[in-house]
């Protein structure tokens, strides 16, 4: 939380890719962007997020707490980006050989 505050004081955007209490703390500190996978979001909210509407509703709840952007990764279904300007779904390309190691880091790096 202290690191988040120092970054915010210097107008440095903060992306939080966390789980559990650390995720809650980052949301409370109003980081710029939260990156969370669908399973983590389901555990955090204690809801079955079976469709995009339910995911969007939870993401908007996070945004309502002061987080500008929420990215929910959906495994091989891609990801949802929810921001003030709207919501977008991105889908990964189809590949013949796939190793998911590093996928979240790659998404975070842009």
**How many strand units?**
5
Low-confidence stretches: none
Give the SSE order as H and E letters. Answer: HEHEHHEEEH
Q: What's the overall geometry?
A: globular
Counting H and I runs of at least 4 residues, what is the number of helices? 5
Biggest sheet, open or closed, and with what strands and sense? 5 strands, mixed
Note the gap between the termini. Answer: 24 Å
Backbone CA Rg: 14 Å
Structural class comes to alpha/beta
Lateral strand order in the biggest sheet: 1-2-3-4-5
β-strand amount: 15-25%
Summarize the amount of helix as a percent range: 40-55%
Mean pLDDT: 88
What does this structure look like?
The chain is of the alpha/beta class and 110 residues long. The chain is built from five helices and five strands, in the order αβαβααβββα. It has helices spanning 2-9, 20-28, 38-45, 52-63, 103-109, and strands at residues 15-16, 33-37, 69-73, 79-83, 86-90. It has a five-stranded mixed sheet.
């Amino acid at each position: 939380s202290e690191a988040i505050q120092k970054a915010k004081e210097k107008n440095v955007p903060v992306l939080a890719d966390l789980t559990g209490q650390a995720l809650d703390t980052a949301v409370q500190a109003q980081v710029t962007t939260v990156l969370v996978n669908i399973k983590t979001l389901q555990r955090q909210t204690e809801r079955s997020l079976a469709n995009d509407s339910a995911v969007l509703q939870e993401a908007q709840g996070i945004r309502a707490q002061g987080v500008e952007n929420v990215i929910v990764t959906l495994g091989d279904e891609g990801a949802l980006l929810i921001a003030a300007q709207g919501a977008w779904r991105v889908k990964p390309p189809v590949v013949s050989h796939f190793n998911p190691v590093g996928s979240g880091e790659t998404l975070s790096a842009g």
